[in-house]
Amino acid sequence: MRVTVTVNDQDYIRDVEPRLLLVHLLRDELGLTGTHWGCDTSNCGACTVWLDRVPVKSCTVLAVMASGSSVRTVEGLERRGGELDQLQVSFALCHGLQCGFCTPGMLMTARWLLDRLPDPSDVEIREAISGQTCRCTGYENIVRSIRHAAESERAAG
Amino acid sequence: MQVPAHFEYQRATSVEDAIALLERYGPESRIVAGGHSLIPMMKLRLAQPELLVDINGLADLGGISLAGDVLRIGAMVRHAELLASVTAGTHFPLLHDAERVIADPVVRNRGTVGGSVCQADPSEDLSAAFTALRATAVIEGSAGVRRVPMREFFHGPYQTAVGPAEVLVELQIPLSNSATLAGSSSAYLKVDRRAGDWAVAAAAAVLRIDRDSVVTEVGIGLTAVGARQFAAVEAEDFLRGRQLTGEHIAEAGDIAAQHCSPVADQRGPVDYKRHLAGELARRALHAAAARADLAIIGRL
Ligand SMILES: Cc1cc2nc3c(=O)[nH]c(=O)nc-3n(C[C@H](O)[C@H](O)[C@H](O)COP(=O)(O)OP(=O)(O)OC[C@H]3O[C@@H](n4cnc5c(N)ncnc54)[C@H](O)[C@@H]3O)c2cc1C
Ligand code: FES
Ligand code: FES
Q: Domain named FAD-binding PCMH-type: which ranges (chain B) (predicted)?
């Protein structure tokens, strides 16, 4: 079945089985392996991408359901010219990752949060990432990274 | 890797088109809304539909609005949209209480209200919420539109009044228990093991009291404890017409606990769940009462 998707502003057309999941379209068909695939049960959030500007767990969305839509993955987070998104900078500075497995999902959810709420409280940050599991950091540094990014973006106006 | 079995996929262009597709392909066809219950079941091969009819993007199934004496909530409204709806929260605060504890924000961006109630999982939070609110399900098939009260909607675990070639269009909640009316409000309380998990148990309460603190209308819903139709009817019958006192609320909780039939699972043993059913019903009633009439708190 034909799928037409725009991923990170680039158009793709692929012929896939209806049972292919969006996460596998991204990783296996389009080679965008930044999106991770963990629990396969919509619990861990490693596979979180934006579908039509909203974060969703791509292990529980069919690729055919995304046809005609736009998808944004962690590869689309950095600005043109290779400049990192402030969240990526802040995660690096504040040790927001260790193994990095959860990081792409965390970043996509955090970007969505800060776009809507530039000055979130710690409670709001924790609530926003409550559907994502991190096995390494204990979350403390992830929350700190997101807060750091929020403060940096507000300081930069 | 969990992969669903083979199936065909079609996008419905309208509600009529969805019904026609379901009729043409028969009982092996299934609607997919958010897919957050159905796709996991297909991965585990607990469901193996031959055709999925995608109803995402059908505008007729969207939106939250006031229409006459009801609040209507379209079947395709995502959990996140219901949680963000000021109209829904103003009239029925229990809907926001419930949505805040359903799954997590990313799942809530995709899962739908209609999918929740059609899934009819015994732990589905909105089932008890709509039951307590005495909502009506609007269901469309080729023979026309039917209206089914929530209390006749659930036919058992994973079974509802929606026929194989029918579409749930919307839920309608009567505004007679709107929190904007004096002496009326609602609340939902859930105990879960961790953020985003299904309920160990949960309770919904809708209350209306008159100027003398007599209960004129009451709805009590119970989640995940095997209450018939998600309702604590005996507790409702006990409270209706009585003074809203702490003792009466406590007794209503006891009655609710007595009449439910939880099963033991990894979330807890029967006694614990029964205890939670009673305690959460009590607390939800207190919370609804406090919202309905701030002055009542001192008296309970
Ligand atoms: C990780 C996770 C955690 C969750 N936690 C909770 C929780 O704590 N509490 C809770 O209540 N829920 C929870 N859920 C369930 C979530 O609320 C439901 O998955 C979701 O809302 C179901 O809606 P859907 O749109 O995804 O339905 P789908 O999966 O698309 O459909 C479910 C069923 O309903 C049918 N259907 C859907 N829409 C219609 C319609 N309009 N007419 C007729 N039939 C229809 C489908 O054919 C299917 O049989 C959780 C889900 C996940 C993945
Ligand atoms: S892989 Fe999708 S939520 Fe874990
Ligand atoms: S950094 Fe290893 S899982 Fe989060």
A: 2-178
B5–A54 CB contact, under 8 Å: no
- CATH code of the domain made up of B183-294: 3.30.390.50
CB contact under 8 A, A40 and B1: yes
B189 pLDDT band, cuts 50/70/90, is very high
How many beta carbons lie within 10 A of that of residue A150, not counting itself?
21
**Within chain A, which residues score under 70 in pLDDT?**
none
Helix residue spans in chain A (DSSP H): 22-24, 86-93, 103-116, 122-128, 140-155
Per-residue pLDDT of B87-139, as tens digits, reads 999 999 999 999 999 999 999 999 999 999 999 999 999 999 999 999 999 99
With contact defined as beta carbons under 8 Å apart, do B126 and B116 qualify?
A: yes
| Domain spanning B59-174, CATH architecture | 2-Layer Sandwich (3.30)
Q: What is the pTM of this model?
A: 0.96
Taking CB atoms and an 8 Å limit, are B105 and A128 in contact across chains? yes
How many angstroms separate the alpha carbon of residue B100 from the centre of ligand 3?
26
Residues with CB under 6 A from ligand 2: A 37-40, 42-47, 57, 59
